[in-house]
Amino acid sequence: xxxxxxxxxxxxxxxxxxxxxxxxxxxxxxxxxxxxxxxxxxxxxxxxxxxxxxxxxxxxxxxxxxxxxxxxxxxxxxxxxxxxxxxxxxxxxxxxxxxxxxxxxxxxxxxxxxxxxxxxxxxxxxxxxxxxxxxxxxx
Length: 139
Hints:
Blueprint: H1 6-32, H2 37-47, H3 57-64, H4 68-80, E1 84-88, E2 96-100, H5 102-136
Antiparallel strand pairs: 1-2
């Protein structure tokens, strides 16, 4: 096994810092829009489902890396505030599908626009940190 070099440790530390910074800024953007970070992530997961995929509770839980009951609690809170709607499956009433309501779409769009602008402005540092980690083993 190859020994890890000091530059690889430095690259990993920089990458961790850049990822944490990106996540912290995302949390702040969500809060400034009146959402808790996990609520923002759930809205994003709903809107970001691949074509043909349904936003079922379990799929959303998997996307957020949380347990089913935690996703249900998030949906409950978002539904209470008018951001999402849930509907039972027509063929299987046990299935629960979640969709964005216009209010949820608007708040999500504001946060995502801000995040994309931030990435376009400062994302090169994150890309450089990833490149440093990936490139060190190849040189």
